[in-house]
Design a protein that fits this description.
With 234 residues, this protein is of the alpha/beta class. It has one domain: Nucleotidyltransferase, domain 5 (2-Layer Sandwich), CATH 3.30.420.40. The chain contains six helices and ten strands. Helix 1 runs parallel beside helix 2 and helix 3 packs across helix 5. The longest helix has 18 residues. The termini are far apart.
């Protein structure tokens, strides 16, 4: 199976390419806003190194969220554009599941409370269990203060230890982990077998947090509504 995977949901950009019968190729770089200018060149570099084109891919997997709004928009737009041009499906993968898989790769954990820094003094969190074939998320993805989390799994994994330290719950194991492209590659076969591949136009982000910023049009509409209310006030 030929698979391309990338994630730009955190401060780190991760890109990997799996060519059938060969070892994966990986690249890392800066995430956030910088990924919008470096992701496509990095993808093209890996494809050239592997000697295959986009049309030879079986799917394009990407971290769909939750995570950085800018990073998620970058990943979705690039996945959609590449998949549309090549006529291949996309595979949106939840970033917290990828964190759980990264932790499994690092220490063999199969019951993980995955936690990602959500900024604004909050974290994204969800428990995942591995049944030997695939991961299952238990319950909804939470967005909460780090102090509000409870250690519902023996392994706590993610990138929130640095910013929040002992505000996070104690666990039997704590593992620094990220939604890496390598983890996405390992997750992809089981997810595709579940029929979770999607047409390119369905490369959509999973934000979890409500919008924290309005568009220019929304701000203008809000100002107009406020002005109208002021004129109506005696």
């Amino acid at each position: 199976m030929n698979l391309l995977a990338f994630d730009t949901s955190t401060e780190a950009m991760s890109v990997a390419l799996q060519r059938a019968g060969a070892a994966p190729l990986e690249r890392r770089g800066e995430g956030g806003a910088r990924a919008s200018s470096t992701l496509i060149p990095t993808v093209m570099e890996l494809l050239a190194q592997a000697g295959i084109g986009l049309a030879a891919l079986d799917a394009i997997a990407f971290g769909c969220g939750p995570g950085s709004f800018t990073g998620l928009r970058t990943a979705c737009s690039v996945a959609q554009g590449l998949a549309l041009g090549a006529g291949v499906p996309v595979l949106p993968v939840e970033t917290l599941m990828a964190v759980a898989e990264d932790a499994r790769g690092r220490c063999g954990a199969t019951d993980v409370l995955a936690v990602l820094d959500a900024r604004m003094d909050e974290v994204y969190a969800a428990r995942h269990r591995f049944d030997g074939v695939r991961w299952q998320r238990e319950g909804e993805i939470r967005l909460c203060a780090p102090d509000a989390l409870q250690a519902t799994a023996p392994c706590l994994a993610g990138n929130a230890f640095g910013p929040y330290g002992d505000r996070l719950p104690a666990a039997a194991a704590q593992v620094e982990a990220l939604p890496t492209a390598a983890a996405l590659l390992r997750l992809a076969p089981a997810l595709l077998a579940q029929g979770l591949g999607r047409p390119a136009e369905q490369a959509l982000p999973l934000y979890v947090r409500d919008k924290v910023a309005q568009t220019s049009a929304e701000r203008e509409a809000s100002r107009a509504q406020a002005g109208a209310r002021a004129r109506m006030t005696p």
